[in-house]
Design a protein that fits this description.
Length: 249
């Protein structure tokens, strides 16, 4: 099932926002408002108990681009899980599905050692995750404020263990696909200065795979720059789209 919301100017550039795991398309509200002159499309990557995989999601949204771009410039922005979907899209895209500009935010690549054991241990914590007080702590660590908390908590409570395990397995085992290095796309890779070292290594791996791409470390933020610093994030994305010098961070 293809589930998405569309905002802004239907005649503008096609700007596709791919959300992270554990959150929904609502995380991009501040970006959608800022880029109201663009044709903004915000998918829901994980819907109900539908089986999730990064590869199938990437192919789905490439087909969407092929059907809806209609000659427009195509820009795709992905965060975390959505950034992994974007990396997969860049490795799979055909000429008729071409992404012109890509902003990859906090994408984990290369896989995580002992991912299977880590995911099994998470099952024991699932009842805790769905407790409101614990969800508040998790939300704070992801820069989710009070305005967005109810939506975050709703998504958390509604997600089944099966779907959660699928998402985490895909996230923790993702590697850079063949074809990524040959993609005819302008690529910007970002990571928060306070993110874990594995995320910074992932950024370096993505940059090494495409020497002509650009990398930026966003200061004073961990995993969640679009939510933590929406104004500066929007200015950075805007400069990237327009081919202008990046603003001071």
């Amino acid at each position: 099932m293809v589930s998405y919301n569309r905002y802004g100017n239907p005649n503008g550039q096609l700007l596709l926002f791919l959300h992270g795991g554990g959150v929904g398309g609502w995380m991009w509200e501040r970006q959608v408002r800022h880029f109201s002159d663009c044709d903004c499309v915000v998918p829901e990557l994980v819907t109900g108990d539908e089986t999730f995989s990064i590869d199938s999601s990437a192919r789905r949204w490439l087909r969407f681009i092929e059907a809806h771009a209609q000659g427009k410039r195509v820009i795709v922005v992905g965060f975390s899980l959505g950034a992994q979907v974007l990396v997969a899209m860049l490795g799979l895209q055909s000429r008729s599905q071409r992404i012109h500009d890509a902003m990859i935010n906090s994408a984990l690549v290369g896989g995580v050692p002992f991912a299977g054991a880590a995911i099994r241990s998470m099952k024991l914590a699932m009842p805790l995750v769905k407790r409101r007080w614990f969800a508040k702590l998790q939300a704070k660590s992801m820069y989710i404020g009070d305005v967005d908390f109810e939506r975050y908590y709703r998504d958390t409570v509604q997600m089944s263990w099966t779907t959660f395990a699928e998402v985490m397995t895909e996230n923790m085992s993702f590697t850079i696909p063949e074809g990524y290095s040959e993609a005819e796309t302008n690529v910007l890779v970002t990571v928060g200065a306070r993110e874990k070292n594995v995320m910074k290594r992932s950024m370096n791996e993505l940059l090494a795979s495409r020497p002509n791409s650009v990398g930026i470390v966003i200061p004073d933020v961990g995993h969640g720059a679009p939510l933590a610093k929406p104004e500066s994030f929007n200015r950075l994305l805007e400069a990237w789209i327009r081919g202008e010098p990046f603003p001071a961070r």
